[in-house]
Amino acid sequence: MSRVCELTGKKAMVGNNVSHALNRTKRKFDANLIKKRFYIPEEDKWVTLKIAASTLKNINKKGISAVLKEARENGFYKK
Fold first, then answer.
1. In this structure, is the dihedral angle defined by the CA atoms of residues 75, 61, 56 and 54, taken in order, positive or negative?
2. CA distances in angstroms from 36 to 15, 26, 55, 74, 77, listed in the order given
3. Domain containing 17: what range?
4. pLDDT in tens, 20-35
């Protein structure tokens, strides 16, 4: 499976390694993903999601139900 956040769609970015002599070579900045289980009381079930660390902060702030609702509206979460 690709390294993409299941709720926000965050994925890898492309950039450069820059040496002291300013030589540039391509590199990849991967998203900071973690695998986490959440309990959804409305559906009375547990789900395992691969999410970015910044998304986890949003879940802690807003709650899993609100973040799932936003993700469904944006077309990322379809379960």
1. positive
2. 28, 31, 11, 21, 15
3. 13-74
4. 999 999 999 999 999 9
